[in-house]
Amino acid sequence: MKTLEQLQFNNTFSRLPTGFYSRLQTTPLAQQFLISFNPAAAELIELHASEAQRADFVDVISGKKLLPGCDPIAACYAGHQFGHYVPRLGDGRAILLGEVETASGQHWDLQLKGAGVTPYSRSGDGRAVLRSTIREYLCSEAMHGLGIPTTRALCIIGSQEEVYRESIEPGAMLLRMAPSHVRFGNFEYYFYTQQFEHLKTLADYVISHFYPQLAEEKNPYQALLQQVIKRTAELIARWQSVGFAHGVMNSDNMSVLGLTLDYGPYGFLDHYDPDYICNHSDHHGRYAFNKQPETGLFNVSCFAQAILPLLDEDTDAGVALARSALNEYEAIFVQHYAFLMRAKLGLQTAQKDDQKLCNDLLAIMQKNQADYTLVFRSLSQQDASLSRDLFMDRSAFDDWYQQYRARLLQENSQDSSRSAAMKQVNPKYILRNYMAEMAIRLAEDRQDYSEIDRQLGLLQSPFEEHNALERYAGYPPEWAQRIAVSCSS
Ligand code: AMP
Ligand code: MG
User: In a 3-state reduction of DSSP, which class is residue 104?
Assistant: First the structure.
């Protein structure tokens, strides 16, 4: 484990030509202090957790006191937002301090969100509010705990600085980490500005650093497209399987590594409602929970369009390659989702009516407003009455349960081993909106940050029992049935 000074930086993105990013400095917040530190993320970069106690830790992490090897930049990108192409976005409030290289050769971007204005801020202030920072911090670690690819989060820095949103809120910063933050939108920018040399440079960069095995393929760019499609389809299958709605699936929020990226007005389902819209600015439900699989296809189509000039010198041939790659998306999604849902039901073999069995359960859950997480966890518990109690229409549940038992019998399923396996895939705890809200209220109103750390530990191992925190394993409280989360963050 290392001290801050011992971290090795190897900044590969900032060695790309200018035109990919702007060099700049972070703008520290007024009277910064450490709010929460995540030792699990520190371990990834081999940073000793005790470094967080250093008097100058916050100055270093906020970029106020630059470590040797840091080279702060903001990246340039575009993207489709709510279906419309926006030609120039870029890191308007995120600044990449540098890339840490570990002893085993792994790379981690250290990216600060809320670090001040950049050339891409447009009319924004380059800041993040404490509320959104807590939400991203908790959710990215919760997703990791659930086994879902995501950016990670090292710490939250608080401040006395006032930030103006619908009301005045405290400003904060999040230090997030990922092998790369490159988005579909980075590719779109070079396609739509017809900078095809840069497009190739970016694709070569992504292949050589993150998909090195593809360099050997006959057509590495086609292989890259196929991989991005596969990872995206599988990522969204995972979201659907845990009841996660991202809320702003714009193509600039889609990672070329298939990571969950840019947590804004996301939400986990409480009761099963496929039409759930978590983003309160999404009036038409474009990014509703059940729209995510098709939105994923829209987004990978944006990526395919952007990478088209690299696929083949002949446009028609390139289009044919892109089409055939995109045609795979649905099957990959369906197959992966079926695999995940089978595991949630504790089924070991694949049979043709499994999807129907699952859909039938979802249908009665929807009708009965049964809680998504509680139903699956209860099914893991070898006590049908626990599940039954979650449905108003008990006989509808009983009918379904009979089919389920019959299906289990077909594969000679053993109750105790099935139960153990199901508990590893059906979380006991998820980050319900009310939980984040509680952590936020305590932080904002009382400068009490203990709830953030408490939930962090819980959400990092959501399949385990946490007896002292059993209160988080039940229904959301009445006051939080429907918290609308705004896009402004
Ligand atoms: P988001 O909705 O957070 O994914 O952001 C969309 C775009 O707006 C990105 O280019 C962000 O960098 C930018 N942006 C969002 N909030 C701010 C802000 N407060 N200041 C500057 N740019 C912002
Ligand atoms: Mg974004």
Answer: coil
